[in-house]
Structure formats: C-alpha cells, structure tokens
Design a protein that fits this description.
Low-confidence stretches of chain B: none
Radius of gyration of chain B: 21 Å
Shape of chain A: globular
Low-confidence stretches of chain A: none
Helix content of chain B: over 70%
Strand content of chain A: under 5%
Structural class of chain A: mainly alpha
Oligomer: heterodimer
Distance between the termini of chain B: 65 Å
Strand content of chain B: under 5%
Largest sheet of chain A: none
Helix content of chain A: over 70%
Largest interface: A-B, 49 and 49 residues
Number of helices of chain A: 14
Distance between the termini of chain A: 11 Å
Mean pLDDT of chain A: 90
Order of helices and strands of chain A: HHHHHHHHHHHHHH
Mean pLDDT of chain B: 87
Order of helices and strands of chain B: HHHHHHHHHHHHHHH
Radius of gyration of chain A: 21 Å
Largest sheet of chain B: none
Number of strands of chain A: 0
Number of helices of chain B: 15
Number of strands of chain B: 0
Chain lengths: 347, 332
C-alpha cells in the first residue's frame, strides 16, 4: 500500500473513533432522557456564545497547553508522568510563598511576580525530579511514585490554606487572602486572561516543538523512550535522560501552577491544579505525542470544559459531561488505532 | 481512650479495609495474569454509583452488588480487549477509563444524589461473636467483610496451591512457555482480567451501600481509593496475604489519623488523612530497592559475611512483579 493511501486510511480510522465517541455520548444522553441535539447545541453556544466565553476558553487553554508541552517530553522518553498534578500544585505553592514573603516590602511588584514564577518553576521541577529519582534510583514505578506525591502535594496545599497561610478570622475552602492587585499579571483589556500567559504558552509550544523534532537531545530522548537497552548500547545514559525529561516536564508543570496563581486566581486555592494535569495526559494521548497538534486540541478540550459549565443551569445536567466526551474521544481513538493496526498489520 | 474503644476502632479498621482488600485481591489476580488494569479509580466510583442505584430501585442489596460487579467486569473487559486483542498500551487505556468512568459516574449519578438506598448492616455470627476480643474484632461485621476475609485465604490457596493457579502464574511469568504447554494464554488473561474487574466492581457498592453509605456525587469520598488499591497491589508483592496486610495497615493509619486529630488539633485534619501516602512511598521504595542495579553493585562491594545478611533482609522485603506484566503476548 502506498503512503498516501495509508494516510487516508489512517484519517478514516481516526474519524471513525470520533464518530464512535459522539455516538457513545449520544447513547448516554438518551439514557438520561436528555435531547442530545439540545445538549450539543448548548455545548457549542456555551463555549462560543460570547467574547467573554471565548476569553474563558483561553484561560483554560493556557494551563492545558503548558502541561501538555511538558508531558510530551516525558511521553517521548517513555515515561508516564501521572505526578503532574502534584507538580502543578507545588509550583503554585512556591509561587504563592514568594509573593507572601515580598508582599509588604518595597521590592518592585514586577520583580516579585518574576521571582514568583521562577520559584513556581523550581517547585514543579523539584517535585518531578523526586518522581524521577524514585524511578531511576529507587525502582519505584513513576506512576505510583507520582500518585503518592500527588496526594502529598494536595495535603501540603490544604494544610497551608487552612493552617499557616489561612485567612485572618476563618480559614476556608475559598483559599488564601487574595494578593494586592499590583501582584496580578496584567489582564487583556477587561477579559480575565492575561496576554503574558498566552505569550508564554505560545513560546512553550515552539520550544517543545523544536526540542523534540529538531535537536539531537530530542532524538536521544526518543531513543530512551523506545527501549532502554538499545539506548544504552548507543551510549545514551537512560537514567540521566529520564531525569532530564522529568526536570523539563516539572518546569512546565510548575510554570502552570505559578501562572494559575499570579494570572488567574491571585491566591492559592485548594484545587489549584483543577485537574489540568490529567486532562493534559489525555490531550497528549489524543495527539499521539505530536507537538504540532498541542494548540488546536488543547483549545478544543478547553472549549468543551467551558461549554459544559452552563449545562446544569440550562438543562439540569451535570457539567462532567464534558469529561465524558473528552474521555470517550481519547478512548475510541485509541481503540480505532488498535483496530487499524490489526486490519493493516503492523507498521 | 479505653480498651473497648480501641477494640471497636480496630474492628472499624477491619471493616474500612474490607473493600480495599476485595479490590486489591481482584487486581492482584489480574496482574498475576500479566495484565494491569489501571482503571480502578474510575471503576470503583462508577460501580459504587451503579450499585447504589440498583439497590435503590430494586430494594435489594444483593442486586446492588451484582450490578457493581457487572460494571467492574465490563470496564475490565474493555481493558482486556484493547490490550490483549488490539495490543494497545494497557496503561493508556486504563488511565483514560479511570478518568472517564469517574466523570461518567458523576454525570449519570446526578439524579440520585442524596437518595436513601438500603444499607448493609453488620450481621454478628452466633456464638463466635461472643468470644472475647476476637468476637468483637472479626465476628460482628457485615457479610461482605466476612467474604473479604475468606477471599484472602481463597485467593492465596487458588494462586499457590491449585493447578489453575499454576497456569495463572505461568501466563503472567512466561506466557510463551505456558502457550507451549497448551495453555490458552489469551483466554486465561481475559478470564482473570474480567474476574479481577468484577471483584473491583464489588468494592464500589461495598462503599456506597455499607462502609460510606450513600451517593453524594463528587463528595461521596471514593475518589483516590482506586489509586491506593493499585499501590497496595505492588506493595503486597502480588501475594494475597501481603496485599491484605497492606490494605489493613492503610485503613489503620487512616483511623489513627482520625483518632490523633482530637489530640493534635493544630494539624489540619486533611493533612492527617493523607498521612499514609508518604509511608506508602517509603514502603514502595523499600520493597523495590532490592531490584535496582546500584543496590546490587553496592552489595557486591560489601564483605562476604555482611553481604549475605543484607541480601537476606532485602529478599524478605522486596517484591518482584510477574515477569510478563504489562506486555502483550505475541504468538510466533
């Protein structure tokens, strides 16, 4: 079979996955007695109905894009960085800590914000390298080391919000005392997203794209990802590259957490990672770890998230439908990939 | 705190550990066959919701459990189909299912939030429950807790003492050799993945109908348990007794967290609730250290006498996964 035909077939199978996912969700909706057409229409209107909504999509797009960027590096190296949620959280904690330290001093706010983001990056990196060290030198699978550290990060976060960093008077689930406005990232016009975050995300995508497709280092990561033994024979130390992959991914995760703090919430909240880490894993799987697709698919997933918000109000349906739709998309496209390989034979 | 209170607390630990035991034994059987079912966190929440709903509609607790087990078996069948038949990454499919089933449970379970379904109460065993200490500890539990204890012994017997268990281990350790001896590797893997999934699916209703009775959507308190079960399976080194010990130990630590909460009020309760996790990582580190090459290299530098002693210590704690865990079986 010639390559062009193969590519067409590949697209056909992917579209098949998409159709199956939509059919599956339609079936689920029929089960609950909802009108599927109404629901899909509401999802679209909910996401694109006004400029404010589109701005909200961008608010979600930034963290989702950044974590996916980081995750492509670990996935390329053959690693499952499930600990990403904890890395985002620790990044947010470090970033909040810096602002709290300098808040009442005369240090220039811009400098404080920059320091805070750098601290966030460092925090995420530390938490990720910890998973890496547990894997490479402790023999603890990165999935379980990561999960455990996720729980610990969450506990640390909640402990700080209700303990050392609690609001005066009452500690509450709404988070720590918001920072003075000078420590916020500047918003774009009256919308709730910051052009700085958007710019950083775009730069992130470019860096990851170049790193993975245009550098020797990216190739070495790929070699480690394909199999440790052969990489070792080629003179590529797998452990060092795994740790570096975790380090890079952790930097992106920490950056995400820091931007959520200084750019979106302006304080530390209990669910600061908002599940974007796990969602990023799904995006990465859906795009078969190809950097070129990060921006559009992250945008699509972000749009689904925003579109789902009004479902409870308009149709009395739970907003988790967006998650079901995202999950079934990834699942059916994975399954169709398997079917394709079975039909065409490997290669 | 009086002795009676401690005893009741420990009986509570056995109860709280029981659903974890059932799920972890299920996952142990699955992984012994060489398949990882990573979907547990979603499976437990979804089966908990469906089981609760089934019991609510029918008024039958047994049907609730059955419904949960069907859900668990079905999700496991998807993992089996995609990994064994379609040869896709087990981790990828399992992870997606873990996330998706959770959302699906919250979405579909929305209408029954806060409803009152029947509750599985304790059923003390006549005579046996009169025995001092042990009676209170073990024989004043619910029927599912008794089943969980029997399951540990049964699973151990099945895996290590029967011919079927030998086949199971063969499929997980050396599938090619098992195939050559005439074992149907594919169907064995399907079977144990689905049975394991059904057991995991029993854990969900065990929570919503008994241990943490009720369905309250996202605050039902089931999120995270599936991940713990997966960690316990490794911690337990795929041995039913060690897995069960891990489950009880985990439940014990969480209970301890609750008890200490009243004496250590300066620590937020949420922090004590996760206290087991750092310990879990340390435990995983302990059981895995013996498998790393730098430890082996370090051992080689030790003098003969202390080396054998350290080696014995490591061998006692370490756990080694089934050799073919997570790898597809290619007949060639």
């Amino acid at each position: 079979m010639n390559p062009a035909n193969k590519r067409t077939l590949s697209i056909v199978f992917q579209l098949g996955g998409l159709v199956l996912a939509i059919l599956f969700v339609t079936l689920i909706l029929l089960l609950t007695g909802a009108n599927p057409l109404d629901v899909f229409k509401n999802l679209i209107v909910g996401a694109f109905g006004s400029t404010n909504r589109v701005a909200s999509i961008l608010v979600v797009w930034v963290p989702l894009t950044l974590v996916t960027c980081g995750l492509l590096v670990t996935f390329t190296t053959g690693l499952w960085n499930i600990g990403i949620e904890g890395q985002i959280t620790i990044g947010a904690i470090f970033s909040t800590g810096i602002i709290r330290i300098f808040m009442d001093t005369s240090v220039s706010p811009i400098l404080v914000i920059i320091l805070s983001v750098i601290a966030g990056i460092a925090g995420g990196a530390i938490w990720a390298v910890l998973v890496g060290l547990l894997k490479t030198y402790g023999g603890v699978n990165e999935i379980f080391g990561g999960l455990g550290l996720n729980f610990i990060a969450t506990a640390l976060n909640i402990g700080l919000i209700f303990g050392a960093w609690s609001r005066e008077g009452v500690a509450s689930m709404s988070g720590t005392q918001p920072f003075p406005e000078v420590y916020w990232l500047p918003n774009f016009r009256s919308y709730n997203f910051s052009w700085v975050s958007i710019a950083i995300s775009v730069i992130g995508i470019v860096i990851i794209f170049l790193l993975l497709t245009g550098t020797h280092f990216g190739l070495r990561l790929k070699a480690v990802g394909k199999g440790m033994k052969s990489a070792h024979r080629l003179g590529i130390p797998p452990k060092k590259h795994m740790l570096l992959a975790f380090l890079i991914c952790g930097c992106f995760a920490g950056l995400t957490g820091a931007l959520q703090v200084v750019g979106v919430y302006h304080r530390l909240i209990p669910s600061i990672s908002s599940g974007y880490g796990f969602l990023g894993l799904m995006v990465a799987m859906l795009i078969s770890y190809k950097a070129i697709w990060i921006a559009p698919i992250a945008f699509f997933f972000a749009a689904l998230n925003i579109g789902g918000i009004q479902l409870p109000i308009v149709l009395q349906l739970d907003s988790t439908l967006s998650g079901v739709l995202q999950g079934s998309l990834v699942l059916f496209i994975l399954l169709m990939q398997g079917v394709k390989q079975r039909v065409l034979g490997k290669s | 705190m009086t002795g009676d209170m401690i005893l009741l607390g420990l009986a509570g630990v056995i109860e709280a550990g029981a659903p974890i035991v059932i799920a972890a034994i299920g996952e142990t059987l699955t992984e012994r066959a060489g398949v990882i079912n990573l979907s547990l966190n979603g499976t437990i929440i979804l089966s908990g919701m469906v089981g609760f709903w089934a019991a609510l509609e029918t008024g039958s607790i047994a049907l609730g459990f059955l419904a949960g087990m069907v859900v668990g078996a079905f999700v496991a069948a998807i993992v089996a189909f995609s990994s064994i038949t379609l040869k896709q990454s087990q981790v990828a499919v399992g992870f997606v299912l873990a996330v998706m089933c959770k959302d699906l449970a919250y979405f579909l379970g929305n209408p029954i939030m806060g409803a009152q379904a029947p509750i599985l109460y304790a059923a003390p065993v006549p005579f046996l429950s009169e025995i001092p200490i042990i009676g209170t500890l073990i024989f004043k539990q619910s029927i599912m807790t008794y089943i969980s204890i029997i399951l540990i012994i049964f699973a151990w017997f099945w895996v290590s003492k029967t011919r079927q268990g030998l086949i199971l281990r063969g499929v997980g350790e050396k599938p090619a050799a098992a195939f050559n001896r005439g074992t149907n590797v594919v169907s064995t893997r399907y079977l144990y993945t689905i049975i394991g999934g059904a057991l995991v699916g029993a854990a969900g209703p065990f929570y919503t109908l008994s241990v943490k009775a009720g369905w309250k959507g996202t605050i039902t308190g089931l999120d995270g348990i599936g991940w713990i079960v997966l960690a316990l399976t490794i911690f337990g080194g795929w041995e039913p007794f060690r897995v069960a010990f891990g489950a009880y130990f985990f439940a014990f630590l969480q209970w301890l967290g609750l008890v200490l909460q009243s004496t250590l009020i300066f620590i937020p309760s949420q922090v004590l609730q996760v206290a087991p996790f750092p310990l879990m990582i340390l435990a995983l580190l302990l059981v895995n250290l013996g498998n790393t090459d730098w430890v082996e290299r370090f051992l080689a530098t030790l003098p003969e006498k202390s080396r054998t002693r350290v080696k014995k210590l490591i061998r006692a704690t370490r756990s080694q996964p089934p050799a073919a865990l997570g790898t597809p079986f290619e007949r060639d």
